[in-house]
Amino acid sequence: RLRRLDDRIAAHLDGLAVAGDYGSKLLMSALETPGPGEVFAATVRAIEDKDTQRLERLFSVVEALPEAEAGLTSAFGWVSAQHLQGTVSNLLSSPSPFHRRIGISACAMHRVDPGAALDAAVKDPNPALRARALRTLGELGRRDTLAAVRISLDDDDEGCRFWAAWSAVLLGDRGATLEKLTTVTQLPGPLRERAMRLALRAMDLPHAHELLKVFAHDAKNLRTLIQGTGIAGDPTYVPWLIKHMEDLKLARLAGESFTFITGLDLAYLDLERKPPEDVEFGPNDDPNDDNVGMDEDDSLPWPDVSKITAWWAANSSRFQSGVRYFMGDPVNREHCLSVLKGGCQRQRIAAAQYLCLLQPGTPLFNTSAPAWRQQRWLAKMG
Fold this sequence. Notes:
- It is a single chain.
- The chain has helices at 2-18, 21-30, 36-48, 52-64, 69-78, 87-92, 97-109, 116-121, 127-140, 146-151, 158-170, 176-184, 192-202, 205-216, 222-232, 238-244, 251-262, 305-315, 333-342, 345-358, 371-381, and strands spanning 325-326, 329-330.
- The protein is mostly helical.
- It has a two-stranded antiparallel sheet.
């Protein structure tokens, strides 16, 4: 499915390449109202054309509009490594911290070690560059840098402290570092959910139960609690999840957590219901409605409570309380590799993290890479 989507993107980019100068002019005209998509397309063409002048303009655009940076970095992750030769090395040796950060991001997305440039970036005065370097050490599985990562746990910058903790946990530190990561799960901010997902996967079940109890103290944390039960993986939570499937605002999220524990594909097994009528969870056409946020659970199946209740009554004996399950089985390398090859995207992201946690030093599989590159990597993993 991902390959079909990526093939469509590739076809559009090929069309721009065939259009030559006319396609380039269209891309640069689109930068009058730049967003991630416009920047992504323009950057891919600039990289593959080896057009340093256009690339410099794109760097300037993104430095002025940070919200478009995802398009720039994604382009470096999209193009083949052969097109990055020379370009990335120039970025890594640039006097600009922003350029060096993009260069390190490019290497990280291709899971290539930037070497000395990465080691130097961990100590750089620029906090954004330091943070990206610390994150990259975890993504590459650089266990030899664990001592340096631990030093950064006391960095003055919040982002650096977080990525140091995140990487250290991936690299095998389960002591005080995991406690620091757990602290982030209880603080508001954009890093909270990412911290919660890794922390719950890294800690043992008794500690996971304690963290979920903390979330349960505040009703505002109900969505986080439902997500967390699915990550903790203890089948003891399944009846509670089924109960929350009766709430239209939480039904799909509870269904996803149920799947994370049991491994059931609700749509494939006909355990879903039709979407409720006359219910809007995302933006609508009413000009008086201030709700413009996207539906957080869009594309998740609507669970059929009665069918799922009957299935659990017949099959609950297959699951042992107090054991962590992930997609229907206890966590182990072979099963996680199977999910990485055939699961849905959020399930694959979880499987990639488990593979690192099970064997610290394993590079974090990049589930955001183009599908054909992922297929090539998976073939090598056996």
